[in-house]
Design goal:
The complex is a heterodimer of chains A (about 120) and B (about 120).
Chain A (H helix, E strand, L loop, with lengths): L2 E3 L4 E5 L4 E3 L2 E3 L5 E8 L6 E7 L7 E2 L2 E6 L4 E6 L8 E9 L7 E2 L3 E6 L1
Parallel strand pairs in A: 2-12
Antiparallel strand pairs in A: 1-4, 3-9, 5-6, 5-10, 7-8, 8-9, 10-11, 10-12
Chain B lengths: L4 E3 L2 E4 L5 E6 L6 E7 L5 E8 L2 E4 L8 E5 L5 E5 L8 E8 L9 E2 L3 E5 L1
Parallel strand pairs in B: 2-11
Antiparallel strand pairs in B: 1-3, 3-8, 4-5, 4-9, 5-6, 7-8, 9-10, 9-11
Classes of the chains: A mainly beta (about 120), B mainly beta (about 120).
Chain lengths: ~120, ~120
């Protein structure tokens, strides 16, 4: 079975500081994608960053980067220079190549940013 | 261009009544997904459509839940004889293909409250 686990229900960071959100996953497939999504109070799911499992290089998108450890099945998200607008629920998700493209999500981490 | 549209945005219904939730995907998107998000929880996969067919219905929680998609476009999720545990936000998403290179676009969801 494909599972995703986020062990931090809540995290807090000071504005302009750096925070890391943790995620572990389990899959029997060798080919898969991993994602981080952001969900503000509007409920709109926003793709933050994506990683293909076959790529060793960690994905980066501006202030967002990941630490992908394939052997450990770990996929953490680092947010640098945190901004007030980063406050939201963050979800980690995985997608196996051969299962119709459905994403399996973790339970989420609520990130608050203190001014 | 328009994004994924869901209606209604909020629905309050009495226990035992049937409800229909509608999703209008982005035009041309062949893959469509329904998810359920209970309060404070992650997204739970319900069903996936490729065109008008549903190759993966594994997430539907009971036979009270059904979904259809017509013309490769609009999808309707129907919940019969609603129960209080059905209260949740129901999210719809679509993508142009089922692989991970194609971004998943989410609607803003329908918040269902069963009284």
């Amino acid at each position: 079975a494909q599972t995703v686990t986020q062990s931090q229900p809540e995290m807090s960071v000071q504005e302009a500081e750096t925070v890391t959100l943790s995620c572990t996953y389990d899959t029997s497939e060798s080919d898969y994608y991993l994602f981080w999504y952001k969900q503000p109070p509007s409920r709109q799911m926003i793709l933050v960053i994506r990683q293909e499992a076959y790529k060793q290089q960690n994905a980066t998108e501006n202030r967002f980067s990941v630490n992908f450890q394939k052997a450990a099945k770990s996929f953490s998200l680092k947010i640098s220079d945190s901004q007030l607008g980063d406050a939201a629920m963050y979800f980690c998700a995985s997608q196996n190549y051969n299962q119709g493209g459905k994403l399996i999500f973790g339970q989420g981490t609520e990130l608050s940013v203190k001014p | 261009g328009a994004g994924v549209s869901q209606s209604p945005s909020n629905k309050v219904t009495e226990k035992g009544k049937d409800v229909e939730l509608r999703c209008d995907p982005i035009s041309g998107h062949t893959a469509l997904y329904w998810y359920r998000q209970s309060l404070g929880q992650g997204l739970e996969f319900l069903i996936y459509f490729q065109g008008n067919s549903a190759p993966d219905k594994s997430g539907l929680p009971s036979d009270r839940f059904s979904a259809e998609r017509t013309g490769g476009s609009v999808s309707t999720l129907t919940i019969q004889r609603t129960q209080q545990e059905d209260s949740a936000v129901y999210l719809c998403a679509s993508r142009s293909t089922r692989d991970g290179y194609s971004p998943l676009h989410f609607g803003n969801g329908t918040r269902l409250t069963v009284t």
